[in-house]
Amino acid sequence: MQEYDIAIIGGGHAGVEAAWISAQFDLKVLILSMPNVGLASAPCNPAIGGVGKGQVVREIDALGGLMGKIADSSAIQYRILNESKGYAVQSTRVQVDKDLYTANAEAFIAAVPNISVVKEKVVSINDGVNGFSIQTEKSAFFTRKCVVTTGTFLNGKLHTGSESNAGGRVGCQMSPGMNELFSKVSTLETRFKTGTPARLNKDSLDYSKFVEQKSDPKTKNFHSLNLASERFVEQRSCYIAHTNENTLGIIRENKERSPIYNGQIKGVGPRYCPSIEDKAFRYPDRNSHHVFVEPEGLTANTIYPNGVSTSLPKEVQLEFLRTIEGFEACEIEVYGYAVEYDVVDTSKLSDCLEYIDIPGLFFAGQVNGTSGYEEAAGQGLIAGVNAALSLLGKEKMVLDRADSYIGVMVEDLISNKRDEPYRLFTARSENRLYVREDNSVNRMAKYRLALGLSCEIDIHHQEFLDEYEILWNLVKSSSIYATPANKKYFAESGYGELSKNLAMDELIRRSQVNPVETLERELLKRGVSFSSEVLYACAISLKYEGYINRSIVENERIYRLGKKVINWKSIIAGNISNECRQRIEEVKPTTFSQLQRIDGIRPATLAFVAGNIIQ
Fold it and tell me: SS3 for 309?
């Protein structure tokens, strides 16, 4: 029997991150992945980042994760979403070559000598005194810690029209159900569902009828150690098309043939990534929906029509797609489908994503009821790093929701049983003016440096923080005097009036100036320069400083109480309702913040805890 320190069950985005971070502690790590499935593959849309998700990728990168490196090396189109809105909600999104993404992931992992990859189907996991025995179809392994990242493969079932087959994704086997794999682990009674659109032959579309979206050369790479605007592969355009009355009419006429609406599919789908059938019936008066025409790679012959995910019968898929302008002669290479799968009850997990009743067993990714590669990767990093820290007897790493989207996600996940797939948005954070892409190093460095790993990324972070502090202090100590020359300069530069002496940070905050361009110009005028990343983070932080300081004061009042550790057993022994008692017994909250987020907890219970349990 082969022995490892940490075994990762599943080689998707969560599994790869868990392996990458845990291997940095010089531990012996194993990835067990399904046969014929590439590591970190992209079975849904071939893109990384997006609103809220771009922030997660940069947090993963700042914590020493892998997703940003793979995305940069495989990106064929760059964009900044929400560019017309405030800096706080702007997010980076890159279209990737999906085959290259997997090839690069395999190469990065292969270059780590203490990670082994075995592609065999796992059939059982058993816990023992000092670890776990894992049996595949061909081999047996023993591991001291185990991270399960099985994605949609757990008891997966595919649907296209009336066709229904076992599988984790098209062309792949499913994993056994959790009851079969590990009988001691609880899954939700309700299965979850996700799906994809048909893949279209790229040469069968008329691109002259679409709106082109070219790659943006100004968008910064995800990985901190890459040059901001460096591109590693050829860039390609994406396009926008629209559905119409005929498209939605065909879908509505075939409602009874849709597995989602005829009862064939029992699972719950993602609210914020609906299928085209959901759009047709959820918005009966709306027929025009965006269809993002996205290339799947530089050499791939397929297009991903993002926005028309479907599990309708094959002939109906072709019929409605051909009503879209530019799609009249489209040919389908792979038909759309939906997949149902088992989901772990995340209320049984700790803030490290460890199964509370089975120490040493961690869960991450879509098996935890989330949707999206980025959410999966963020959880994989948390599970992987804490598996390693636990093995080494070190303090756990828990990200605070006040300064991290990953922290927001983990606390949301463990505070309730999920009743639908979870997706991150900027609106889920109470502190989104501070939790931005540009200051991800400022926010994550304290967690990363606390690991004591002294890798190249750690040296970068320390240099970044040192440079940032110098720039911040320089701006805070600089003033502009109201001399005739400066008044003229202000008028010529569009800075507004200079009626009295002005601190430089007050100039940066003026509504009529671009904070980044203004800070850069003023520094050049004084003959000093700083790295563009430090300058950008400092300028935006100065711009929002007043709002952030007020938010900190308000949030601290909330967080001060929220961070209080509570004993749930003391709470259920108190004078609270039976409903609250049952919900608390089920989730076993460890902090007041987690208690607040449990669905159905009454204000009277919170008042009781605040007044009687918390000292």
Answer: coil
Quote the radius of gyration of the chain (alpha carbons, Å): 26
Instruction: Tell me the H-state helices in 63-151.
Output: 67-74, 98-110
Q: How is the beta sheet containing 157-160 ordered, strand by strand?
A: 163-166, 157-160, 337-341, 192-196
Are 101 and 70 a contacting pair, CB within 8 Å? Answer: yes
Residues 6+ apart with CB under 8 A from 560: none
Angle between helices 532-562 and 456-476 in degrees, nearest 10:
90
Q: Assess contact for 376 and 14: CB atoms under 8 A.
A: yes
- Cross-strand partners of 449: none
Question: DSSP letters of 151-162?
Answer: TT-BT-EEEETT
Residues in a beta bridge with 577: none
Torsion, CA 558, CA 563, CA 569, CA 571, rounded to 10: -20
Q: Residue 236, Cβ neighbours under 10 Å: how many?
A: 16
Q: Please count the other Cβ atoms lying within 10 Å of the Cβ belonging to residue 395.
A: 11
CA proximity to 570, closest of 535, 530, 615, 519: 615
Cα torsion angle, 24, 25, 29, 33, sign: negative
Q: By 3-state DSSP, what share of the chain in percent is helix, strand and coil, each rounded to 5?
A: 40, 20, 40
Predicted structure pTM score: 0.90
Do 495 and 506 form a contact (C-beta atoms < 8 A)? no
User: How far is 190 from 288, CA to CA, in rounded Å?
Assistant: 32
Report whether 366 contacts 152 (CB < 8 A). yes
CB 225 within 8 A of CB 461: no
| Tally: H helices and E strands in the chain | 20, 22
Is the pLDDT confidence value at 96 over 90?
A: yes
Q: State how far the Cα of 535 lies from the Cα of 429, in Å rounded to an integer.
A: 25
Q: What pLDDT, on the 0 to 100 scale, is given for residue 176?
A: 67
Q: Worst-scoring range by mean pLDDT, 34-43, 385-394, 455-464? A: 34-43
Q: What is the pLDDT of residue 75?
A: 98
CA dist., res. 305 & res. 198, Å (int): 7
Distance CA 25, CA 352 (A): 17
Tell which wins on pLDDT, 609 or 233: 233
Contact 362, 383 (CB under 8 A): yes
Query: Which helix (H) or strand (E) is 538 found in, with range?
Result: helix 532-562
Residue identified by tokens 């990384």 is 48
Report pLDDT for 11.
Answer: 95
DSSP β-ladder status, 157-160 and 337-341 = antiparallel
Q: Rounded to whole angstroms, how far apart are CA atoms 456 and 464?
A: 12
Count Cβ atoms below 10 Å from residue 484 Cβ, excluding itself: 8
How far is 7 from 466, CA to CA, in rounded Å? 37
Query: Is residue 612 over pLDDT 80?
Result: no
Percentage of the chain beyond pLDDT 70 is: 96
Whole-angstrom Cα distance, residue 47 to residue 145? 31
Three-point CA angle 332, 335, 339, nearest 5°: 160
147 in helix, strand or coil?
strand
- Tokens (6 digits) for 331: 């040919």
Q: Give the side-chain half-sphere CA count within 13 A for 57.
A: 27
